[in-house]
Design a protein that fits this description.
Elements lengths: L1 E8 L2 E6 L3 E6 L2 H8 L5 E5 H4 L12 H7 L5 E4 L5 H9 L4 E4 L17 H11 L4 E4 L2 E2 L2 E4 L4 E6 H8 L5 E5 L12 H10 L3 E5 L5 H9 L3 E4 L1 H4 L5 H8 L9 E7 L4 E7 L1 H10 L3 E4 L4 E4 L8 E8 L6 E7 L22 H13 L12 H18 L3 H21 L4 H14 L1
Parallel strand pairs: 1-4, 1-13, 4-5, 5-6, 6-7, 7-11, 11-12, 12-13, 14-19
Antiparallel strand pairs: 1-2, 2-3, 8-9, 9-10, 14-15, 16-17, 18-19
Length: 433
């Protein structure tokens, strides 16, 4: 599958040819990551950090922007990560994985023949775990490239890769000579690397067509794309659909719809045209086998499933769709197709969704819709006081806590804050400890 790349330099989103020459520059990182996240993982690379263009505190012109993007999807971060403290900080801020480049390698083999900075990598594995680590095995002339691709060390690509996989869950391979050139990558070298290691391999540098992405997919390599996306040579929609294994799935890919809270809502099947319409409309679309036609969930009832993101499984024959349900999912009137309404469990996300619906489509007599910003803050204070001062029995605590959570949810909605934002902050604090 495709990982979209956002490269940052001097506070801008850029694309460079051969890692040096500026080809394009733009300032819409937030909208880019919102779009990229629909299709898969996103890589954010701080080029200034990689080139050591930092201030006295180790920050770059990109630091604030990078931090603002970290919780907007399944994000991996790279560029000049040279110590455990920095890696831990990025994970605590929301990065799922960190990409380690030059810091993973020694400038020359040590007395024992090691090519890796094993002391650093062992400390890193202890601190954040092997599954969160990606090691870059960038090459020029099939030699490992380091220091922002300005130098190479006398270590062959395959030798460096085999040594590195002991300390990571995946390798990121950039063919530097092909980077940004839009002339295709070295498929034979990619296959050679793939056969040499057992961990996940992600290929970057020069990939310029869906056909090439498919060939790398067949070779069991994922692709990290930059220039091809920004120039329009490849669309993420076409790449996503092109990587699905329709043949294995018999022409129909099972699509599991789940809410942002993780509730499984329904299962349907989609062909290529259904995925095309899903991406075009933003609403989850299936192929109805009984009616033999495309079917957008909610087209009759109005209870659409608005797509947040799609993720494909490791075999490329099943898709998980994270959605925002607009009303009940099941034709029976139940929230989910997998149990009756009486069995449906309340949670904070579902409460938030109902509150959102009440404000967007007020119903006659809706109390929620009458709450303005001033009143809801007054109610939060009032309910907090009742919980702390008046609740004496267990039942009282439950009752008052439910009231407080309801009004806090309304306040969050009014301020444009989701419960996921709150979870993320709690997660950040946990990872800091």
């Amino acid at each position: 599958m495709v990982i979209a790349s956002i490269d940052l330099k001097d506070g801008h989103v850029v694309q460079l040819k051969n890692g040096k020459d500026l080809v394009l520059e733009r300032d819409d990182a937030a909208s880019l990551i919102a779009e990229f996240d629909k299709y898969g993982e996103v890589a954010i690379i701080d080029l200034d950090q990689a080139m050591r263009n930092t201030d006295s505190k180790g920050n770059t012109a990109n630091t604030a922007l990078l931090k603002s993007l970290l919780r907007h999807g399944n994000v991996r971060v790279g560029g000049g990560i040279r110590d455990v403290k920095k890696a831990r900080e990025l994970i605590s801020l929301g990065a799922e994985k960190v990409i380690i480049g030059s810091a993973a390698f020694l400038s020359e083999k040590d007395a024992n023949g090691n090519v890796l900075n094993t002391e650093f990598l062992e400390d890193l594995v202890k601190a954040i775990g092997k599954q969160r680590i990606i090691i870059s095995v960038d090459s020029i002339g099939e030699k490992i490239a380091v220091k922002g691709w300005k130098e190479t060390i006398d270590v062959p690509l395959i030798e460096g890769a085999r040594a590195a996989e002991k300390y990571c869950s995946e390798l990121l391979f950039t063919n530097v000579e092909k980077e940004g050139c839009m002339q295709g990558t070295d498929i034979a070298l990619c296959k050679k690397l793939r056969e040499a290691v057992s961990c996940r391999v992600v290929v970057a540098g020069g990939v310029s067509s869906v056909e090439e992405i498919r060939e790398l997919e067949r070779a069991k390599c994922d692709v990290q794309l930059g220039m091809a996306l920004y120039t329009g040579a490849v669309s993420l929609k076409d790449a996503f659909i092109g990587c699905l294994d329709f043949e294995k799935a018999g022409g129909m890919i099972p699509v599991i719809a789940q809410s942002t809270a993780g509730e499984v809502l329904m299962l349907g099947y989609a062909n290529k045209e259904a995925f095309e319409k899903t991406f075009e409309s933003g609403k989850l679309t299936f192929f109805s086998r009984t009616r033999n036609k495309l079917w957008t969930k909610g087209e009759t009832s109005g209870n659409f499933l608005e797509v947040v993101r799609l993720r494909v499984d490791c075999d490329r024959d099943t898709v998980l769709a994270t959605v925002k349900p607009r009303g009940e999912t099941c034709h029976t009137g139940s929230w989910t197709c997998f149990n009756a309404e009486a069995m449906a469990k309340s949670n904070l996300e579902r409460l938030y969704s109902i509150i959102e619906e009440r404000f967007k489509n007020p119903r006659p007599g809706s109390y929620t819709a009458t709450l303005d910003a001033k009143r809801v803050r007054e109610k939060v204070m009032e309910e907090a006081e009742e919980l702390t001062d008046d609740a004496e029995s267990r039942e009282d605590v439950i009752w008052e806590a439910a009231d407080l959570i309801y009004f806090v949810s309304v306040l969050l909605y009014k301020e444009g804050v989701s419960w996921q934002d709150v979870y993320d902050e709690l997660d950040r604090r946990h990872k800091e400890k």
